[in-house]
Amino acid sequence: MGKTKELTLDRIYQAAHCLKNVVRKTDLILSTNIVPDCELYLKAENLQVTGSFKVRGAYFKLAMLSEEEKERGVIACSAGNHAQGVALSAQRAGINATIFIPSVAPLSKIEATKQLGATIKIIDGVYDDAFEAAVAEQKKSGGVFIHPFDDIDVIAGQGTIGIEILEQIPSLDAVIVPIGGGGLISGIAFAVKKLNPDCKIYGVQATGAGSMYNSFESRKRESLSSISTFADGIAVKSPGEYTYELCTKYVDEIVTVSDDEIATAILTLMEQQKLVSEGAGAVAVAAAMFRKFGNLPFTGEKVCAVVSGGNIDVNILSRVINRGQQTTGRLSELKIEMLDKPGQLKELSAIIADLGANVIKVIHNPGGENTDIIGCFLHISMETKNKEHFLEIKQAIQKAGYKIVNS
After folding, report:
1. At 204, is the secondary structure helix, strand, or coil?
2. Angle 202-208-209 from CA coordinates, rounded to 5°
3. Using CB atoms within 10 A of its CB, is residue 309 exposed (0-12), middle (13-18) or buried (19+)?
4. Which of 23, 25, 125, 292 can pair with 287 through a Cys bridge, CB separation 3.0 to 4.6 Å?
């Protein structure tokens, strides 16, 4: 009958009871601007203990270990969030924890895990490489392996989010959930469908890490040969066995979003909701913003997007903000070919200023081989309102007789 038989609603309620004094019952925040024609609620797991939902599954899994298993210690692999969840849970239970982390994980996540007392081993590569190293260590040492997603107790822990969401808003029409290996969406989908079968469950992956998306579409588990996304928390080459089976049974649709769309969602969450999200945490919001779902009309619907984590490295955050501004037309660039004579820059600056944009950088370069001898190129970077505003400025500059080479 399949492995999914091992997961029950009673198990998820047991996890909820176990976690009652450990995790926060995170807020469900109404956003009125991100998707204007629907009631979009944000499940703020980025404000959870350790900054991510992962502590739920990790803590419940460790709580279910026997005393003999606890004595042997635990081994885990993670891109960072599961690592922190395991480290915190092990610290509270007095269990030795060794955690394998891929080299692509942000330094902030690695340092946070160290501070929680776990032994850290950095493995070159992505999550799947860390997974192989962790499995090898488990066979050698005999420790208990704590899988980040393909484990029934871990999935049950994550499923407590589904119970909370429906307690907060019983009449939801849809829940949108990030997917890496599938533990989060498996738990949420199972809980929500058991309690409210009419509520739709939508999953989201990064375009460059769409292993569950591919598997869901082809109806067979598929692995990726490589991964390309800055959303390290969902950069997984292969979906789990349990999670794939649960997704095929309880998830209605899975889509993907680009890194540019994820960056735009992170920027939007910061500006409009004052919420800091990491890449993996923002994919559900990105999918809603860019209306990725064929079966979700949005208009008049009550929709919950799970913001699954907020552990983003500040260096990556600065790049993400820059990319998000570019994608939405808030940060624009022009390259103008013109004659190098007095007054040109003053006239261009006046055009831009009169239309309400702000010049933040100007670079002047001499013309090349195929330009006028007294020609030059002017590179202008400016802050604009949106893409329409940028187009208005371009047209005004062209109308004034200037030649825009590219933008």
Report:
1. strand
2. 60
3. buried
4. 292
C-alpha triplet 46, 278, 151: angle, nearest 5°: 70
- What is the DSSP secondary-structure string of 71-112? HH-EEEE-SSHHHHHHHHHHHHHT--EEEEEETTS-HHHHHH
Q: Hey, what are 396's tokens?
A: 């005004």
Taken in order of first residue, the domains within the chain and their CATH numbers are 1-328 (3.40.50.1100), 331-406 (3.30.70.260)
Rg (CA), the chain: 24
Alpha helix ranges (H) inside 196-301: 211-218, 241-250, 259-273, 279-289
Q: Which residues contact 159 (CB under 8 A, 6 or more apart)?
A: 7, 12, 15, 186, 187, 188, 190, 191
User: CB-based contacts of 178: which residues, under 8 Å, 6+ apart?
Assistant: 184, 185, 203, 204, 205, 233, 234, 280, 281, 283, 284, 306, 308
How far is Cα 202 from Cα 225, in angstroms, rounded to an integer?
Answer: 25
From first to last of the 407 residues of the chain, give the pLDDT tens digit.
344 458 999 999 999 999 999 999 999 999 989 998 899 999 999 999 999 999 999 999 999 999 999 999 999 998 889 999 999 999 999 999 999 998 888 888 888 899 999 999 999 988 889 999 999 999 999 999 999 999 999 999 999 999 999 999 999 999 999 999 999 999 999 999 999 999 999 999 999 999 999 999 999 999 999 999 999 899 999 999 999 999 999 999 999 999 999 999 999 999 999 999 999 999 999 999 999 998 788 888 999 999 999 999 888 898 988 888 888 889 999 999 888 888 888 899 999 999 999 999 999 888 766 667 778 888 999 999 999 999 999 999 999 999 998 75
Nearest to 390 by CA among 297, 341, 327: 327
Q: How far apart are CA 150 and CA 144, in angstroms?
A: 14
First to last CA, the chain: 58
> Contact, 22 vs 59, CB < 8 A?
yes
Which residues are within 8 A (CB) of 341 and not within 5 positions of it... i.e. 6 or more apart? Answer: 374
Residue 15 token pair = 């996890």
Number of Cβ within a 10 Å radius of residue 236: 27
